[in-house]
Each structure stands twice: as structure tokens, then as C-alpha cells.
Amino acid sequence: MSLSLDALGVGYQRSPILPPVTATAAAGRLTVLLGPNGSGKSTLLRTVAGLQPALGGAVRLSTAGAEPVDVLGMGVRDRARRVAVVLTDRFDGALLTGGDLVALGRHPHLRVGGRLRDADRTAIRSALSAMHADELADRKLVEMSDGQRQRVLVARALAQEPALLLLDEPSAFLDAPSRIDLLAVLADVAAERQIPVLVSTHDVEAAIRTGQDGWLIDPAAGELGELVTGTVAELSRAAIGRAFDTDRVRFDPGDVSFRLRSSPLDGRSSPERHG
Ligand SMILES: Nc1ncnc2c1ncn2[C@@H]1O[C@H](COP(=O)(O)OP(=O)(O)OP(=O)(O)O)[C@@H](O)[C@H]1O
């Protein structure tokens, strides 16, 4: 199952914020969506997910040997079965347990009456396990760290058993090691489930270390910006710098990090210890 955008029109009130987007995200691979603040990552993801109207074009899911299906033309219930979305909004359900929350992911698959069956319980367990969150099944959300809560939110999306997983900035509240770890787990999920996983992130360094393919929005290219695609290694060589560099900060592809053009740390040898 791969995702392809065909001249997808992205914008608000009929005004595009990007040129028509044509790109693919392969099954089994983690595709990271990168771009500076305000470049259009969330708007693009929301449009792919069908959460806001496309200004034109198509979003298709293709499986080898079968006709591609048009995501934007699907009914709401059908789309909920195939496309899972994790957004940045804080989840308001603090008294639910992790298991309760993940069970909500089964909702599109339940029959009238909404009782969980064995297959649903298996999907819930497998989603928690894929996110290394088995021990959170009985813990209340209010008693979880941001990182634990994020894993359970992603597990809820996996419990949908989607053909496509979309995540908007899932690592926003996480520390640096947890950000890398979450992206690495998402790469495993893509490989194990053989689905495309498309994730937007501000953490370019973690994305390059863990992602496989990238979609990069370069807002300075052309009138409306440009979407550049490639492997993360290809993007990091020049395109990341073109999109993100400023007068004061530049991306160093050699050690995959942003640096001040003149750093106050230049010439300092090691931290001083006190006490
Ligand atoms: N509801 C809206 N109506 C009109 N324009 C909007 C709306 N929401 C966002 N925009 C504009 O669309 C552009 C892209 O915003 P978007 O939130 O998609 O960018 P982003 O790359 O996700 O940003 P960030 O990295 O800061 O989260 C911005 O210029 C923004 O001002």
C-alpha cells in the first residue's frame, strides 16, 4: 500500500499555500515531512487526511495488483478504517486508561452496539506492544508522562489497523532522546505493517537520523514555495540548508545539526564543574 498525491491543491478559502503537490510515500517506509515554521506541513497533512478540503487533485492509496483507492472520495467511515491521524492537540480524557484510549481506535470497525470482540482485543494488544507501551494499558492518562501519553495516542491510531498512518508533530512535547526513539519506533511500525507512515516534525536532526524518505517544503523557492522529495540523506546534502538556513544559523550536513554561523562556544574547551 503506497500513498500518492497527484497535483493536490493545498490551501484555505480557495487560496493555495503551496503549488499543486505531487509526491509518493512508500509502504514499509517512514517519510518525514519537514519545513520551517508556517511553511504548510500541518495544512498538507490535514488535506491528505481529508480533514480539510483539497483545492484540487487526488490522494490515492495503491496496493500492487489492485485499483488505487481515492482517499478524498471515500465516505467518513471507510476513511476512518483506512487512514489514521495523530494530531498535536492535547487529548482531553485524563481519567481514561491507556487501554481505554487505544480501544477507541477500534471504533470504526465495531458493529452497532459497539462491543469489543476477540479480534479487537488482539488489535489493541498488538498496537500497545508495537509502541512498547504494554505496561501502560491499565495506567490512567493523567498519570503518564508526555512521552508515555504520546505512545498511547499513536497506539490508538495503530489499533485502527490503518492502511496509512499520518502524524502531525508527534514529538512536540518530548525530550531529544525520546524524539529520536519515537521516530525509530514509527520506522519499525512502517516496516512491520508494510504501510506508509508520514510524519511531520520540527526536529530535522532526529528526522535525518531515523527517517528514510523525506518531503521538504522550501518556502523560499518560487512564488508559493516548493515540495522537494528524496531520501533523507539526499535532502540533507543541500535542500535542508536551502530551506532552513538564515543569516545567523546554518545546517551542517556533515554532523547533521544546525549551528550558529559564529558560535559563542567557539574557542571554549570544556564545561566548568562547580562544587
Ligand atoms: N485556518 C487558516 N486559515 C488561513 N490560513 C491559515 C490557517 N491555518 C494556517 N494558515 C496559514 O497557512 C500557512 C501554513 O500553516 P501551517 O500551520 O500548515 O504550517 P506549518 O508548517 O505546520 O507550521 P508550524 O511548523 O509553525 O506548525 C501559514 O501561512 C498559516 O498562516
Automatic annotation (TrEMBL):
<keyword id="KW-0067">ATP-binding</keyword>
<feature type="domain" description="ABC transporter">
    <location>
        <begin position="3"/>
        <end position="243"/>
    </location>
</feature>
<dbReference type="InterPro" id="IPR003593">
    <property type="entry name" value="AAA+_ATPase"/>
</dbReference>
<dbReference type="GO" id="GO:0016887">
    <property type="term" value="F:ATP hydrolysis activity"/>
</dbReference>
<protein>
    <submittedName>
        <fullName>ABC transporter ATP-binding protein</fullName>
    </submittedName>
</protein>
<dbReference type="InterPro" id="IPR027417">
    <property type="entry name" value="P-loop_NTPase"/>
</dbReference>
<dbReference type="InterPro" id="IPR003439">
    <property type="entry name" value="ABC_transporter-like_ATP-bd"/>
</dbReference>
<keyword id="KW-0547">Nucleotide-binding</keyword>
<dbReference type="Pfam" id="PF00005">
    <property type="entry name" value="ABC_tran"/>
</dbReference>
<dbReference type="GO" id="GO:0005524">
    <property type="term" value="F:ATP binding"/>
</dbReference>
